[in-house]
Design goal:
The protein has about 475 residues and is of the alpha/beta class. It has helices at about 5-25, 30-35, 70-80, 125-135, 150-155, 170-180, 190-200, 250-260, 265-290, 305-320, 320-325, 345-370, 440-450, 460, and strands at about 50-55, 65-70, 120, 135-145, 210, 225-230, 235, 330-335, 375-380, 400-405, 415, 440. Strands 1, 4, 5, 6, 7, 8, 9, 10, 11 and 12 form a 10-stranded mixed sheet that branches. The radius of gyration is 23 Å and the shape is globular.
Length: about 475
């Protein structure tokens, strides 16, 4: 019996989900309830458009310098641990309290956090402070990779079978991969790509479902969805075809023939198939982008901002969504330079300024395009960093604070559990490395639900979700 491609995708997704539910066992009634759900509504796109934009901070963002304790009592604890001494005196890697007044956050409805902590954004993030005040930005507190809920005592236990935790913690490559895919380095598919797998049938041109302006990344790789890479200016061309090869038009024509001709060799045939797809896609993308224009400026007053450049091409691709034939898209952009073992104060401030400018410009562009409530931007990073300073910086951590931005975000308040400002509390594993209280699986599942993924399909996106109480953290409308 002939099986269509989409039927085959659904069959394999069902098998993966069944295996994941079996692993979850009796971890929660929610997980067991999924087993009885029908398969009819695995994904719902309807007639609207929705896009997710992952902004990855490469190197491990110092969340303690991004969202800073501002009330006097918790600021003093923060300052003492980060080398600033008592009171409000800055030093070590402590930010002066006086510099935080303009970015202090007041959550809606008088929200009270752990130990009455109040936060301020980094001093450079005045635009994002305005987005928070407008209800368009939501911080998610202490999120990180987990296989199952984990206490400090369980973390310290030698019984890893009973108390599993992500492999190779504190390693850049492995934790980047774990954040993006739920597996350490070597993973072949990520949760953005797995959402793309489900969305393929919603798009007339499925090639433009998962788009990266950040190069190759496992986050956007699916079982069937293919990552389409763009540059900050548009479609990526094959060298030698965009301009005459070695100054020769004949050379370019010969190269084109070599890249697109049929072959009886299976490897050569596959290579040429991919080359033809790239050439054809370049034509489609450039034609779709050519008439798009944005009044919103992504150009800083001085210097450069690679994150803004990447988000600008994402905005242009979204503007061209009808010409590209898409209703659901997942994008990825990134910003590097966050591995601040030293020079934290100066280096991190520069990056926060770039993030603040780029996020604000991108949100304004979505408003201009009339899709502010259809595009959700969220942050991720290798890991958080130690609260304890090492002299001039901080070291690799685990849990961290992240942000969700968009017209559909339930912004203006916090989600998750605020950690204690301490290096000895039960919510950290040493030196102020946060033990996550929210899992990446829950983060992904909440975004996936908004994107259109049915509850029965969530385990195919977030393989550990059945072990946690709640697949929706509430930060999306």
């Amino acid at each position: 019996m002939h099986i269509s491609k989409m039927e085959d995708i659904s069959r394999r997704a069902f098998l993966r989900r069944s295996k994941q539910l079996a692993v979850a066992g009796t971890a929660g009634s929610w997980a067991m309830g999924l087993a009885g759900m029908g398969e009819a509504a695995a994904f719902s796109a309807g007639n609207d458009y929705r896009a997710l934009v992952c902004v990855f901070f490469n190197g491990g963002n110092d969340h303690n310098s991004t969202l800073i304790p501002y009330d006097s009592a918790n600021y003093d604890l923060y300052s003492a641990i980060r080398g600033g001494g008592p009171g409000q005196t800055a030093g070590g890697i402590t930010l002066a309290r006086s510099s935080l007044a303009a970015t202090a956050l007041t959550p809606a409805n008088g929200q009270v956090l752990t130990n009455n902590v109040q936060y301020a954004l980094a001093p450079q993030m005045t635009r994002m402070k305005a987005l928070f005040d407008a209800g368009k930005l939501a911080p998610l507190l202490n999120v990180g990779p987990l296989i199952a809920p984990l206490t400090l005592a369980q973390y310290q236990s030698s019984n890893l079978v009973a108390n599993p935790r992500p492999a190779k913690l504190f390693s850049h490559n492995d934790q980047q991969s774990t954040w993006q895919s739920s597996k350490p380095e070597g993973a072949t598919d990520g949760w953005g790509g797995r959402m793309g797998d489900l969305a393929l049938s919603s798009n007339t041109n499925s090639l433009f479902t998962c788009i990266s302006a950040a190069g190759n990344a496992v986050f956007l790789a699916g079982m069937d969805a293919i990552t389409y890479q763009v540059s900050s200016t548009g479609a990526t061309s094959i060298g030698g075809l965009k301009s005459p090869l070695f100054g020769s038009t004949a050379g370019s024509n010969a190269l084109r023939t070599l890249l697109t001709q049929s072959s009886n060799n299976m490897f050569e045939a596959e290579y040429n198939r991919v080359a033809r797809r790239s050439i054809d896609a370049e034509t489609v993308v450039n034609a779709a982008l050519q008439p798009t224009s944005l009044a919103t400026s992504f150009r800083p007053v001085s210097g450069t901002n690679t994150l803004a450049d990447q988000l600008q091409i994402v905005a242009r691709m979204i503007a061209a969504r009808q010409a590209l034939g898409v209703k659901r898209q997942v994008f990825m952009v990134n910003l590097g330079g966050f591995d601040h073992h030293d020079n934290l104060i100066t280096g991190h401030a520069t990056l926060m300024g770039r993030v603040d400018f780029a996020f604000d410009a991108f949100y304004r562009a979505t408003v201009e395009l009339g899709v502010a409530d259809k595009v959700t931007t969220f942050t991720a990073s290798d890991f958080g960093r130690t609260l304890q300073f090492n002299g001039d910086g901080s070291d690799h951590g685990w849990g961290a604070h992240h942000f969700i931005m968009g017209g559909a975000a339930n912004g203006g308040r916090y989600y998750g559990v605020a950690p204690q400002i301490s290096v000895r509390s039960s919510d950290q594993v040493g030196l102020g490395r946060l033990l996550p209280t929210v899992s990446v699986d829950q983060y992904a599942a909440t975004l996936a639900t908004w994107f259109g993924v049915a509850p029965s399909e969530l385990p195919s996106i977030s393989p550990n979700i059945g072990r946690f109480n709640g697949a929706n953290l509430g930060f999306m409308q």
